[in-house]
Design goal:
Oligomer: heterodimer
Structural class of chain B: mainly alpha
Distance between the termini of chain B: 25 Å
Largest sheet of chain A: 5 strands, antiparallel
Largest sheet of chain B: none
Strand content of chain B: under 5%
Shape of chain A: elongated
Order of helices and strands of chain A: HHHHHEEEHEEEEEEHHE
Structural class of chain A: alpha+beta
Shape of chain B: globular
Number of helices of chain A: 8
Strand order of the largest sheet of chain A: 5-4-9-1-10
Radius of gyration of chain B: 16 Å
Number of helices of chain B: 4
């Protein structure tokens, strides 16, 4: 293929190029793609009636054709044609009409000659070069973008892992500090610490281990009413069920209870928010495991009590699954530390116990020393 | 022949220079490629039809790229950039398809 356009323009494949300025109508072209898809009308010359019908149906610049100013699409003088709508033309005639126009001009003898022709040909070559350049740039851009996408992902993964490590480190540090605090407390308080430990275990602030009972409750099947489209949720475990189970366990002598690993304390809440059940504002999902540490008779007492019978009825009637089992050795984690709301010293701090300066800031508001301790700090933490 | 050489020269130039595309031009790149392909296939088809015209080719390429870039730009400003890009790709894709079909018929008589 050469760009030298020496052959006759408007050649055999061009159906009647010289009569078709503007190229808005292209009848009878066997080379026109989409011919076969167009129902019949592409291959036939346009009759005046057909044109009229098309004009009326399309409403394309209604009015008598001959009297109107020439079509801006470039129809021949006095001959008004109504082109098909844009999409039809697009399918029927994908080649830019300008090529046909140029060929017609050349056929009429108005073609470019000499230096001008060479200039235009050079510009076309430069354009082609630009196209090749564009293709390569686009290819390189696409290839270059791919690793950047995966890179971003990898960076995020690395960040996640780093944060996880940090959390683990902080957790370890918190554990060591807690151990340190426990050791210090034991040393300072001596015998009183056992009582404190018992209190912590009872209030849920320390992990406890022992034998007891495990009650498992799980949602039954939910069916959808075929007529109303309403979901029947009787088989689902409600917050009241968990409350009932927990209360029954307390009354049966349980010393510590956890719902799905969430330790219950004196201020714990079990309530429903929509379809989710929240234990101390943390969602728990089915199956619900209520584990209690208590006397050996705990499981039997629960089963024979009101709650056990109630759950048995629920299970048989609504398909809720319910199970009571004895557990030999189970560990219940400590509950999250409750926020300290009110604190007051139970005994007057004796002066000789404050070996370090600023150990009890705020306890003697009248004799506050201008130390590094801010005046409004809570009295719980001593300076190191 | 010259056309193919020019195209190859452009490709080599792109490989050698390896330019960095400014980020604000990146969204226009795919659309520009489609517009360029439309111009190229239109030119090849016209060549086979025997009605190729250099000026028409240059003008159609430049106007294709500019108009499609403008449409994408306006679409981005209006918040419908994706849809308008789809429209541009559909229209140019239909044209490419039609022209390639014509080229195919020229080359294979089928």
């Amino acid at each position: 293929m050469s760009t030298g356009d020496t052959e006759m323009p408007g050649g055999s494949e061009m159906p009647g190029g010289s009569e078709m300025p503007g190229g808005s109508e292209m009848p009878g072209g066997s080379e026109i793609p989409g011919d076969s898809e167009m129902p019949g009308d592409a291959g036939r010359p346009e009759s005046p009636f057909r044109r009229l019908g098309r004009m009326l149906s399309l409403g394309d610049s209604a009015g008598a054709g001959a009297e109107r100013p020439p079509d801006p699409d470039g129809s021949a003088a006095g001959k008004r044609t109504y082109g098909p709508d844009f999409l039809t033309q697009l399918f029927q005639h994908p080649l830019d009409p300008g090529y046909a126009d140029a060929a017609a001009r050349r056929a009429a003898g108005n073609g470019r000659t000499g230096a001008r022709k060479h200039t235009v040909r050079g510009i076309a070559a430069v354009t082609l070069g630009a196209i090749g350049f564009l293709l390569v740039v686009a290819y390189q851009q696409t290839v270059a973008e791919e690793p950047s996408r995966t890179k971003a992902r990898e960076t995020l993964i690395a960040q996640v892992e780093k944060r996880r490590d940090q959390t683990q480190q902080l957790q370890d540090r918190a554990d060591t500090l807690a151990d340190e605090v426990a050791a210090l407390r034991e040393r300072e308080l001596g015998g009183a610490v056992t009582g404190l430990r018992d209190l912590e275990a009872a209030t849920g602030l320390a992990a406890v281990e022992g034998s007891g009972a495990k009650i498992t409750l799980a949602d039954g099947p939910t069916s959808v009413d075929a007529v109303t489209g309403e979901r029947r949720t009787e088989g689902q475990v409600k917050d009241t069920d968990l409350q009932l189970a927990a209360n029954a366990l307390w009354s049966a002598g349980a010393e510590a209870i956890a719902v799905n690993g969430q330790r219950l304390t004196a201020t714990s809440t079990i309530r429903q928010a929509g379809e989710a059940i929240l234990v101390d504002l943390r969602p728990v999902t089915t199956p619900y495991e209520v584990v209690a540490i208590g006397p050996d008779s705990l499981a039997g007492d629960f089963q024979d009590g009101y709650a056990g019978k109630f759950f048995k009825v629920l299970a048989s009637r609504y398909g809720m699954s319910y199970d009571v089992a004895k557990v030999k050795s189970v560990t219940l984690e400590a509950a999250t530390e409750p926020k300290l709301r009110v604190a007051e010293p139970s005994v007057e701090p004796s002066l000789d116990s404050s070996t370090e300066p600023g150990t009890e800031p705020g306890t003697e508001p009248g004799t506050e020393t201008p130390s590094d301790v801010p005046s409004g700090s809570p009295p719980s933490e001593g300076g190191k | 022949m010259i056309a193919v050489l020019a195209l190859l020269a452009g490709v080599l130039l792109g490989i050698v220079i390896h330019p960095a595309v400014p980020p604000e031009l990146v969204p226009y790149l795919p659309i520009a490629v489609v517009a360029a392909l439309d111009a190229v296939f239109g030119g090849v088809r016209a060549k086979l039809d025997g009605i190729f015209d250099d000026k028409q080719f240059v003008v159609s390429f430049i106007s294709n790229v500019l108009v499609s870039a403008l449409i994408v730009y306006v679409g981005d400003q209006l918040g419908v950039g994706g849809q308008l890009s789809t429209g541009v790709v559909v229209v140019l894709g239909v044209r490419i398809f039609g022209n390639v079909a014509a080229i195919r018929r020229h080359l294979f008589r089928a």
